[in-house]
Amino acid sequence: AMTKTAGCCQGCLHYVFDYETPKTLVIPSIRVGFVFRFTQFLVVLYVVGYVCVVQKAYQETDSVLSTVTTKVKGFAFTNTSDADPRFWDVADYVVPPQGGDSFFVLTNMVVTPQQTQSRCPELPNPSTSCVDDCDCIEGYSDPRGNGILTGLCENYSTTVKTCEVISWCPLEIDTKLPEHALLAAAENFTVLIKNSITYPKFNVHRRNILPHINSSYLKRCEFNRTTDPDCPIFRLKHIVSEAGEEFQDMAVKGGILGIIIDWSCDLDWWARKCNPQYSFRRLDNKNPANNVAPGFNFRFAKYYKTPDGEETRTLIKAYGIRFDVVVHGTAGKFGIVPTVVNLGAALTFLKNKHKITHLNEVADTETVSDKLNVFTRDYQGLIFSIFPFSSRLFFCQTADKIHSF
Amino acid sequence: AMTKTAGCCQGCLHYVFDYETPKTLVIPSIRVGFVFRFTQFLVVLYVVGYVCVVQKAYQETDSVLSTVTTKVKGFAFTNTSDADPRFWDVADYVVPPQGGDSFFVLTNMVVTPQQTQSRCPELPNPSTSCVDDCDCIEGYSDPRGNGILTGLCENYSTTVKTCEVISWCPLEIDTKLPEHALLAAAENFTVLIKNSITYPKFNVHRRNILPHINSSYLKRCEFNRTTDPDCPIFRLKHIVSEAGEEFQDMAVKGGILGIIIDWSCDLDWWARKCNPQYSFRRLDNKNPANNVAPGFNFRFAKYYKTPDGEETRTLIKAYGIRFDVVVHGTAGKFGIVPTVVNLGAALTFLKNKHKITHLNEVADTETVSDKLNVFTRDYQGLIFSIFPFSSRLFFCQTADKIHSF
Amino acid sequence: AMTKTAGCCQGCLHYVFDYETPKTLVIPSIRVGFVFRFTQFLVVLYVVGYVCVVQKAYQETDSVLSTVTTKVKGFAFTNTSDADPRFWDVADYVVPPQGGDSFFVLTNMVVTPQQTQSRCPELPNPSTSCVDDCDCIEGYSDPRGNGILTGLCENYSTTVKTCEVISWCPLEIDTKLPEHALLAAAENFTVLIKNSITYPKFNVHRRNILPHINSSYLKRCEFNRTTDPDCPIFRLKHIVSEAGEEFQDMAVKGGILGIIIDWSCDLDWWARKCNPQYSFRRLDNKNPANNVAPGFNFRFAKYYKTPDGEETRTLIKAYGIRFDVVVHGTAGKFGIVPTVVNLGAALTFLKNKHKITHLNEVADTETVSDKLNVFTRDYQGLIFSIFPFSSRLFFCQTADKIHSF
Q: Where mainly located (chains A, B, C) (predicted)?
């Protein structure tokens, strides 16, 4: 037994430190070698050229965390026939006021002042017109209507009678929307966008106000792709036109405009670059076939109280442009794991020559059939590893012939 | 020297274009071959079946950028004993008004009208009740209280005396919350959700209003999983019930409801599909053990001025359902890098047979021990590559025996 | 032919079930074996130590979906010379009121009450001061100004004359910002943050109110990294100081503060942990060189109507701290695909010994040159697979010599 264990341990040592290597055989054929080298070359080309250069697959990535503040500047004066002349500043036309990453600039509206909780005849349309009270079911409320029926049939005008409803009266008539935007001047408003980002995994912090920008420049600058690409102050008209839209058109019915800030970064020391790229795109559908509620609008109200304590409100159907600041980006930095994974995986294809079997004995003869065989075998090497069986059968003819040597 | 370099160059050429291949040996044993093929088969099965079909690991992916607009429709009429009859429309019950991806629908409330900056006795509770002024420290403010103590002890009612506070008076008594939702009718409100998404990497743009939908359909349709799965108009009651909740229950104390739109896309030409999938889930905890501030509510105020310029406000503690539209999704498209990586990596396991060493000489004998050996060696092949040392030692017994041939 | 096909099929069977293995040769040299084992050891070390333990590359990941509600508590009393004493509660100082994932706490302000649509002289500065009406172009509006010029030159004070403008008058004079925050008491306000998250791929749902927390604890607790790390109630002052800022400084000009909740989870059964980690960071730039609009502020207005129906407003330039709750995180769970990919890829490097060619015949001799060769060959093995040609040429000297055996 003693000797046995000794023998074993020796054997073990043997196994641990013996160096194994397959016996190989060289086929000194330029042609064959070339074919083999060429396939290798393709793999190397793929690894170096595509994986490394194009895809940067050696990097590990992280996606961006961002915060945005926006501040709109500018004022307008409206003087239309159907409303009093009025002066507009930021507090009037920006909703919501706290400059977040999504802000709405009022450009057009339908105002219905002096609404009170009361009763008034419905707006005339086939479903609301009536002849006498019998046509109006008390308490019924038509989803497409504006209130709850009182059961009475009243004169809407000298010619039309409609059912009376309980609602905020007078009712809003949103058909008379100005076809020229009320706040056309909004196109000259400017917005300052402050954006700070973080790549938590790499502990990288950046701002869209770059270090080289000084405050005097910021006071007067305005974003322009060619002259001022780093200025974070944007003229609304410029944003819209860069998105391929016409401000005045968009201002009438409203819309949604994306201010996309791309923070894609390459953080490797040999390619330090991490600057914001601005782009602009209309996010809602301009004029869709299925045109339900085109553009962008919403209703809000200002509530007042009359001296005698009655509540009144001014209903505003606000049309305008909502600007969404969308920040996205991916940071890449050299990582050992992705490198090894991609390299390693690619290398498997470098190995695909170990597929010639017992043909070796004849391989250094230079017959045509032989060259064919070697070639097929090389080819076989690649696809074989993917479909072992099929390819084998495909090649069995040749192989069989050779086998019967 | 001349000849030397010439020799070298020749040698180099030799090396560059010689074709190498390991000498191999065939063991014509069905059993052994089968074992080997079977392991190969498993790998292939894994690659084709799982990696490609199930995991789609050959795709590169991108995550979604999205914008959402929502528009709620509907009105209600409340006529309760403790408040005047009132008509409610969108401008009254939706907060905030600008239809973003998160909107709150008011369903229940505690209204405290006519609040002014003044003094009034605290609401009675152990910490606020007092006998005389000595019990009320002037200027002290109890975090759980409603104002700053004036130092006086006043009659809250004929029976109870409490410390007087400076605050918005009268104080809100939020214990008398209606146990039936005030705006029960909210369950029939509908919301139109417009959602545009982008996969920047693949430059793919989509809307949740699909091309085949026309506006006449949009005017009358309502989302229903079976009959109208593509209609972007949702009845609030339907949303809540799909989330497994009862609207009227939820309406009393409020809650948060997620409208989840899944935009997972397979953009490969052989499987073009990229449609939104709607699902609904309650996002807050229904009735947690640790029930602090259950449901969802917040306070806001409407500010008025009396004719004599004094500021008054109506404080509203708003209970209701906040609907969060959560858009997520991943697009996949065939990419050469992930394909090669996954395939290549899997292939390494195809190679795990190159592990038989100097047993070859005996491998074509058909003894039992031998078959065992071959099998163990095959097995060894797989785990060996992971733990070279251990497995070696494990097999050293056998190996040693054989080695001593 | 008959026999031929039979022969073929036999050949096929042969090919399908024969077991192939390369003839190998053992070099019983401890030194050489050691070199080879050492390289193997490094690979294994990398796979086990780094890929598995550090990088957890065997996991597939998913990123978090989250919803947040916030509820601020606290009140303040301001009693300054230039304004009436006033009591502030949540409805007064939190904007917007509906507790979402971003809320603003008012700490300082410039109030301009009783503004009406009218005319008043501009604030004096070089561009607005005038001598007579000729200096004021009617209808012109200076972007840096406050309104549209009427063309008149009026007395701003007894000493200064400035152009008159149409605007909301009186104009806001935002230079007289209190240098001590008006709502200094805001530092003692508390905020309850409720955060529910989901990892859709793994169908995992979590809340930041952990199961072991009971409501009595929640009523009195306050977040503290050491004593109460799981309490979701935060004192504003504590948040700010953890972010390395001084509340009272920040309160004067305002700023943006990130409450970052990290939900990184390891969902494998052997390492179940999925708890929120809170951290706090100032997101805007404290005192940048390019100091345009430092801090954080915005303007909003409360609109009133005078008894005679004229609209007046109180303009508030609100300075304060915006708290953004930023939720991020990645969940990892064992996945077969990433495991195989990473393992497989790493294994390719284990194979890099199959590189010795026709030196085998001499390999068991123990000459110095030989050992060198073996070593170089091993080394060659690794780099060769990456740059086949170059290394070959590099080694051709040696090789050539040997080749000429």
A: membrane
Cross-chain CB nearest to B19 (options A22, A33, A358): A33
- Domains in chain A: boundaries: 6-58+335-400, 63-114+173-332, 123-170
Q: Are A24 and C359 in contact (CB under 8 A)?
A: no
pLDDT in tens, C349-362: 665 443 333 333 33
Q: Which amino acid is at B204?
A: V
> Whole-angstrom Cα distance, residue C130 to residue C122?
10
Interface of A with C in 289-328 (CB under 8 A): 302, 304, 307
Assess contact for C370 and C378: CB atoms under 8 A. no
For B39, the closest chain A residue by CA position comes to: A388
Substitution target from B39, B47, B71, B87 for chain A, most A beta carbons within 10 A: B87
C342 touches chain B (CB under 8 A): yes
Q: Which two tokens stand for residue A107?
A: 């450009």
- pLDDT tens, chain A, 405 aa long: 455 556 556 666 665 666 665 566 666 667 767 777 777 777 778 777 777 777 787 888 888 888 899 999 999 999 887 778 899 999 999 989 988 999 999 999 999 999 999 999 999 988 888 998 888 899 888 888 899 999 999 999 999 999 999 999 999 998 888 889 999 999 999 999 999 898 988 988 888 988 888 888 888 899 999 999 999 999 999 999 999 999 999 999 999 999 999 999 989 877 778 899 999 999 887 765 656 667 899 999 999 998 888 899 999 999 999 999 999 888 989 887 788 777 777 766 665 443 333 333 333 334 444 444 444 444 444 443 333 333 333 333 333 333 333
DSSP output for A45-81: HIIIIIIIIIT-TTEEEEE-EEEEEEEEE--EEE--T
- The string of DSSP codes covering B58-103 is TEEEEE-EEEEEEEEE--EEE--TTS--EEE-HHHHEESSS--SEE
Instruction: Give A-chain residues touching C289 at CB under 8 angstroms.
Output: 211, 214-215
Backbone angles phi, psi at B343, to 5 degrees: -60, -55
**Å from B22 to nearest chain A CA?**
4
Residue B190 annotated as binding site: yes
Across the interface, do B400 and A289 touch by the CB < 8 Å criterion? Answer: no
Query: Contact at 8 Å (CB) between B364 and B28?
Result: yes
Indicate which of B10, B12, B21 best probes the interface with A, i.e. most A CBs within 10 Å of its own CB. B21
Q: With an 8 Å Cβ cutoff, is C182 touching chain A?
A: no
Largest CA distance in chain C: 124
- Crossing angle of helices C30-45 and C336-350, in 10° steps, is 160
Which pTM value belongs to this model? 0.82
Q: What is the pLDDT of residue A365?
A: 37
Residue A317 annotated as binding site: yes
Query: pLDDT per residue over C39-81, tens digit each?
Result: 777 777 877 777 777 778 788 888 888 899 999 999 999 988 7
Contacts of C40 in chain B (CB under 8 A): 388
Please write the tens of the pLDDT for every residue from A371-393.
Answer: 444 444 444 444 433 333 333 33
Say yes or no for a CB contact (<8 Å) between B167 and C89. yes
The CA–CA distances, whole Å, from A57 to A47, A294, C44, C52, C326 equal 10, 43, 22, 20, 29
Residue type, A27: I
ipTM reported for the complex, 2 dp: 0.79
- How many other C-beta atoms lie within 10 A of the C-beta of residue A224? 13
CATH 2.60.490.10 holds for B63-114+173-332:
yes
Q: Closest Cα of chain B to C118: distance in Å?
A: 19
Put simply, whether A347 touches C (Cβ < 8 Å) is: yes
Helix residue ranges, H only, A80-235: 90-93, 215-220
